[in-house]
Amino acid sequence: xxxxxxxxxxxxxxxxxxxxxxxxxxxxxxxxxxxxxxxxxxxxxxxxxxxxxxxxxxxxxxxxxxxxxxxxxxxxxxxxxxxxxxxxxxxxxxxxxxxxxxxxxxxxxxxxxxxxxxxxxxxxxxxxxxxxxxxxxxxxxxxxxxxxxxxxxxxxxxxxxxxxxxxxxxxxxxxxxxxxxxxxxxxxxxxxxxxxxxxxxxxxxxxxxxxxxxxxxxxxxxxxxx
Length: 226
Ligand SMILES: [Zn+2]
Fold this sequence. Notes:
Number of domains: 1
Radius of gyration: 17 Å
Bound molecules: zinc ion
Strand content: 5-15%
CATH architecture: 3-Layer(aba) Sandwich
Distance between the termini: 45 Å
Number of strands: 5
Number of helices: 8
Helix content: 25-40%
CATH superfamily: HUPs
Order of helices and strands: EHEHEHHEHHEHH
Largest sheet: 5 strands, parallel
C-alpha cells in the first residue's frame, strides 16, 4: 500500500487530516514536532491519536523554536490572548503566530517522507477561520510543493512528494462534520493554546473550536474549564 506522512500536532485539524489520509487508502506515518510549545498536553494528544489511527511509525522530533521565541506559544513572557471576538482575531497576524512554523515543519516532513518513500505529506493547514497565518495559505503550500520537488533526490528523479492540505478551504464547522463522518478520534484531540487538565474555553483556538462544533451541531467531546 502507498504510504503518506502526516504532520500531527494532536489538534482537531491535524487529527481530521490524519483520518482523511487513512480514508484515502494510505498507510500512514506521523511526525510530531516538540517545538518548545508552552505546554506538553498536545503532545500527549498526538500520541493517543496516532495510536487510535493505527499509525505505523510516529516520530516525535525536538526542534526547539523557543530558542528565539517570537510567539506567545513559545515564549512564557507573552500572554495568550483570551476572550476575543472573531473580528478582533482576524484583524492582524496574532501573537500566537510561530515564525515560519509550517515552513520549518514541512521541511522536516519532506526529509522524513523521502526516507520512507511516502507519496504525499498531509498537513492540516486551514486558511478560512485563521487567515492571519500566512503559512496556512494555498499560495504558500503550492510554492512549498515546488521547492520540495526541486530540492529532493526523489523529486528530481521524477517521484516528487505532493502536499495535501484537505482542510485548507473548509470552515471549522465543516472540519468538525468531516471528522465526525470519518469517525476521527475527536475526543482525544487538544486544541487549547494553554496547558492544564482541561481546555480553557477562552483562547482564540478554543473559541473557534467551540464555535465550529456548535455550528456543526456536534457535541464537543472535550472537557472545558468554563
Ligand atoms: Zn484555550
